[in-house]
Amino acid sequence: MTKTIFVTRQIPEVGISILRNKGYIVDVREKTSIPSQKEIMKALKKKPYDAVISLLTDKIDVAIFDAAPTVKIYSNYASGFDNIDTAEAEKRGVIITNAPAVSTSEAVAEHTFALMLSLAARIVEADEFVRRGKYDGWDPMNFIGTDILGKTLGLIGAGRIGGQVAHYAKAFGLKIIYSDVKRNEMIENESGATYFSTPEEVLKQADIVSLHVPLMDSTKHLINAERLAMMKKTAFLINTSRGPIVDECALVEALKNKIIAGAGLDVFEYEPKLSKGLVKLDNVILTPHIASASDTARNEMATLVAQNIVDFFEGKVPANKVN
Ligand code: NAD
Fold this sequence. Notes:
five-stranded parallel beta sheet, seven-stranded parallel beta sheet, 12 strands, Rossmann fold, binds nicotinamide-adenine-dinucleotide, alpha/beta, 12 helices, globular
């Protein structure tokens, strides 16, 4: 029987072509809006699909597994897979894969630096100032920011993306400290990073704190009011990982009350909704979860999600199986 695959939203064509060239039937949902869980269930009931390409905005849980008993693999188009109940999938013998593209780590690390440098050099505020016609000549006191050379970068989580950030950080002349549940000797050797077993010391010492942990029960609200208060008043917080890792209400208060100097956020606790007061702050830079949105990364991710399905259908263990 020809294998059939449902894709919950359009992904780069390169991935779809890999599957169609293998002779599989690929149904891509046409709407560009985020599908509700009900909508996904309705679509999956139309055919006995064998596989699904899901996105990080799709909640894949018991209800979906019940609605689509023929689906044996969910290939998630993301490095993270916190949108999927992997334990329930395992109980049912359903395979879950992710797409940890090398170029995704590079893109997210670059975006982390874009946020870091924009905060330090006050790029967004300055851009708005020029656009509003307020620039009436060079002023020695205008938009004084800070430099990052010689500052201390604190990484919380030093896996694929954290490791790549450390790699770039060395070139920027940053001193690197990090905490992780596992030591990363590669970044210690390559970038001279110093390890701390708990995040507290990193929060106290860093001028820039950058978060790169997965979202799990143990990392939800890892950054809360108490930990924000440990940071330097001059410090920046960068979050390109997952929104709920930061208690966003506590962050708004910390930014409002100048407990920390600024934040750069690509992800939000209740995205796409933003916590009250966040947009009013001028010491925060907000991007709409686009850290991995480079053309190279998105194409590589599409290739990986397709390859995971091909491998599974051809009786191999997909390289990116996570359960
Ligand atoms: P990874 O699995 O390679 O690295 C995560 C690291 O966190 C690991 O070294 C792990 O040991 C460590 N860790 C786990 N639990 C921890 C804890 N409680 N305390 C300290 N360290 C802990 O993951 P990655 O690919 O580097 O991704 C990092 C984050 O970036 C994830 O949250 C992922 O979802 C997110 N991400 C975001 C985007 C985006 O577009 N903004 C794109 C890709 C990935």
